[in-house]
UniProtKB/TrEMBL annotation:
One of its GO terms (cellular component) is membrane. This is lysoplasmalogenase. It catalyses: a 1-O-(1Z-alkenyl)-sn-glycero-3-phosphoethanolamine + H2O = a 2,3-saturated aldehyde + sn-glycero-3-phosphoethanolamine; a 1-O-(1Z-alkenyl)-sn-glycero-3-phosphocholine + H2O = a 2,3-saturated aldehyde + sn-glycerol 3-phosphocholine. One of its GO terms (molecular function) is alkenylglycerophosphocholine hydrolase activity. It is found in: Membrane. InterPro entries: TMEM86B-like (IPR012506). It comes from the Eukaryota.
Length: 238
């Protein structure tokens, strides 16, 4: 059994090699100040496209699974959001944030509402409220945009809740649930740090923001794809 597990892990790592290499390319070129905006946008969205390829590499049956299709929609929406946010050159990129909001809606739909886990929701609401109280001080004079930030924060908080509902404050866990929870939390860290850096004060951690963002997308993708594969195997056995 141990050799079988090691073999499966190595197989998944091989499928993730293009994503990992393209992420390294982004950190080498995309974070350089001299890099043109169009090139930054290109190398930023390529890793997400490779995550789409990783999802599709699990076969036609995985593609037909509802969760996999929602995952692909979320990844593509995120890629468009990266392009719009990077090439905008403006502090407020409404189109880019709207695409990320759409991606979170796909992820919320993908994770579903079972189990509900209101305890995890209460914890995330408490954390999100403290964050919004802090961020609202920086956006006090930006009243129209401030409400959009609140809506965006609710979407990402809800996505994190649904991603971690099967793991937080429960007796049962699995690697799939753990990966989904870690992915949701890393999304919070990435976006919250990005917002503080954009609207409050520079944190000089663009590399950390990007690393958390790519890791979040990877963990969520791996959790959903493996969950879809398990569901298909169970249906076969039945």
């Amino acid at each position: 059994k141990l050799s079988l597990v090691i073999r499966e892990v190595l197989k998944e790592l091989c499928r993730l090699v293009p994503f990992l290499l393209s992420t390294c390319v982004y950190f080498i070129f995309g974070l350089q100040p001299s890099c043109p905006l169009w090139l930054q946008a290109f190398v930023k969205c390529v890793p997400l496209l490779f995550l789409c390829v990783y999802t599709l590499s699990h076969g036609v049956k995985a593609q037909a699974h509802g969760s996999a299709l929602k995952l692909l929609a979320g990844l593509l929406s995120s890629a468009v959001g990266d392009v719009l946010r990077t090439t905008s050159g403006q502090l407020y990129c409404i189109d880019g944030e709207a695409m990320f909001g759409l991606a979170y809606l796909f992820y919320i739909w993908m994770f579903g509402l079972k189990p509900l886990n209101l305890l995890a929701a209460s914890f995330l609401v408490a954390v999100g409220t403290l964050y919004l109280l802090f961020l609202s001080r920086c956006l006090w004079d930006e009243k129209p945009f401030q409400w959009l930030v609140y809506v965006y924060s609710i979407l990402i908080g809800t996505m994190c809740w649904r991603a971690s509902a099967g793991m937080f404050f429960t007796e049962y866990w699995s690697w799939v649930k753990l990966f989904a929870s870690v992915g949701g939390l890393l999304f919070l860290v990435s976006d919250f740090t990005y917002a503080v850096d954009s609207f409050c004060f520079p944190v000089h951690s663009s590399g950390m923001i990007a690393a958390a963002y790519f890791a979040a997308q990877m963990f969520i993708t791996v959790s959903v794809v493996n969950s879809a594969d398990k569901a298909l195997k169970n249906s076969k056995q039945k």
